[in-house]
Design brief:
alpha+beta, two-stranded antiparallel ribbon, 1 helix, seven-stranded antiparallel beta sheet, single chain, PH-domain like, elongated, 186 residues
Amino acid sequence: MPVYETNEYEIINGPAKKVDGEKYGTMYLTNFRIIYEISGRRSFLKAVPSRTDLILKLTDVVNVSYASPRLKLKSSLRIEYNSDNSIKAVDFYVKDAVRWFNEIKKASERAKREEFENIQRMEMEKHLREMELARAKTPNVGVAFISGNKSMNSHSTMPALQYCPVCNHELSGNERFCPNCGYRLS
């Protein structure tokens, strides 16, 4: 039995055999991956443990298809996936290929949607951090100044505001010393 990651749960498992392989195993479908594990064997003198033969991330799955013969002997399941910028395929014999097909299709679509949403969320957070940094570097940008009854926006001519070069305190323009830190201005 494979070791699952945090927040990973099993959707379906069952006996399977790779079409090009000679040994039977168990295929597991989780909410993140497809895992194929070759069964171990035990004899009188020696035991061979199970080993993981294939691990596919559901976000890498490109296509899933199945074929069921009329005699209902062995159904085959084909999984096509991205690997190193090329599409590869693996075929399995499974008991209920239609169920595997449906479950893999649903889980793959869900995993891709969640990955897309996570990428969008990360880009939005990055954009918000950049905006906060820009606001911190340029204080008072976009602030409306009110003079008497008249509102002055950023498009009209505003009096140039001055700031102390040491403490960045706002100055009215006629001070010789900064009222906040005492820095000599002229």
